[in-house]
Structure formats: C-alpha cells, structure tokens
Amino acid sequence: MHEIIECKMKNRVGVLNRLTGLLTRRNINIESALIASTPDNQLAVAKFRIYVAQAQEREHLKRVIAKQIDVLSVNWCTDDFTKNSGTN
C-alpha cells in the first residue's frame, strides 16, 4: 500500500542523505518527496510517498527512522493525493 511518512528533523548537512539511505537499504522506493525548511531555517520537514507491503514493516520503519540522530518526529499521513486524483 502507498503511504506518506512525514519526518521533522534538524536542518543539517547529511540528515536527508541518511534518511534516504535508510529507505534504500530496505529496498523501499521513494515515489515522491517534498522537503521544506522552517522560516528560521533550523528545522526541515520531509514527506515521502513510499510503498509499504505490510503493516508490520510500516511500524518498524517508523521506529527505525525515529532513532536517527537529528530526527525529531515521525508520523504517518493519509494519502490525500491518491484519494483526490483517483489514481492507485
């Protein structure tokens, strides 16, 4: 199933690279990404649309990402894009 995971992290060099590397090592394809920094440029929010096959993998992935240095929070979001556009 397609899922959107949102990660709030410190806006530092290498954090996004470590996060995408973590997904790559688990053979998870990033279908789309949205990354934005806060106005004070201290934090960044990244949203990734990924495919997760099993519910257990979903929760495990959330725990693993949350343990990363400079990651402040991790949340799963609803896939509004898919619902609004009518695609699967």
SSE blueprint:
Elements: E1 2-10, H1 15-25, E2 30-37, E3 43-51, H2 55-66, E4 71-77, H3 80-85
Antiparallel strand pairs: 1-3, 1-4, 2-3
InterPro entries: ACT-like_dom_sf, ACT_dom
Domain ACT: 4-76
Protein name: ACT domain-containing protein
Question: Would you mind describing this structure in some detail?
Answer:
The protein has 88 residues and is α+β, with helices and mostly antiparallel strands. The chain is 33% helix and 38% strand. It contains 3 helices and 4 strands. It has helices at 15-25, 55-66, 80-85; strands spanning 2-10, 30-37, 43-51, 71-77. It has a 4-stranded antiparallel beta sheet, with helices on one face. The longest helix is centred in the C-terminal third of the chain and has 12 residues, at 55-66. The chain is globular. Mean pLDDT is 87; it is low at 84-88.
